[in-house]
Amino acid sequence: MSPRLRRSTRPFPPDETLPEPVRPAGLVLDARLHLLDRQTLDVDDVPVATVDDLEIGPPGSSLLAGTDSVFVTALLSGPVLATRIFGGRPPASRLHRIDWRHVTDVGTTVRLGVHGDSLDVLWVERWVRDHVIGRIPGGRHDPG
């Protein structure tokens, strides 16, 4: 039988203070809670994409085994709906990168500090607009 501690005795002195945990520099985010499946908006509050995945690694080098902390280097977006339903993962070439340096704020949405037109993420929408919607009568102008 193991010896039990009495409630009056404690394993540490009552006046001992615990050391403060080391806090990393920068913003600490929970990827699932703060980033994944969030809408990204450009500087004009125009929706750009949805964050589907993250590219992570230590700053300035590739991800090494045994590294203490990792950093988000890019947000990845692309056609992942089918892979979420049927399983699997889209090829890396199908995902579009938004560099983390373009991110200005993380809140309910992820805000970018650049215009969405300058990013390659919207090329599918531009192609559909020019090749499909543009061929519909009246599809090239605002209905208002």
Automatic annotation (TrEMBL):
It comes from Cellulomonas chitinilytica. This is Uncharacterized protein. Residues 1-23 are annotated as: Disordered.
